[in-house]
Design goal:
By secondary structure, this protein is mainly α. Helix 1 packs parallel to helix 3 and helix 2 runs antiparallel to helix 3.
Length: about 70
């Protein structure tokens, strides 16, 4: 499942990726608030969102880095 999401994210432009990252971070914040107030029934969604944010940030860093740099 993770590789499917990664392939979808790789096909996005830098602007689209940044927009998706902001949306996912906002969703992560809302999910954390639900967890804190006891309204969250699917606790695995918190884990998935954190991993998605990490994937997006990694791809964003790779897009910015010039080729051939270490």
């Amino acid at each position: 499942m993770a590789t499917k999401r990664l392939k979808e994210l790789k096909n996005l432009s830098a602007d689209e990726l940044a927009t998706k990252l902001r949306e996912t971070e906002a969703n992560l914040f809302q999910t954390r608030m639900k967890m804190a107030t006891g309204q969250l029934s699917d606790t695995a969604s918190l884990w998935r969102l954190r991993k998605d944010v990490a994937r997006m940030k990694t791809l964003k860093g790779q897009q910015v880095a010039p080729k051939g740099s270490k």
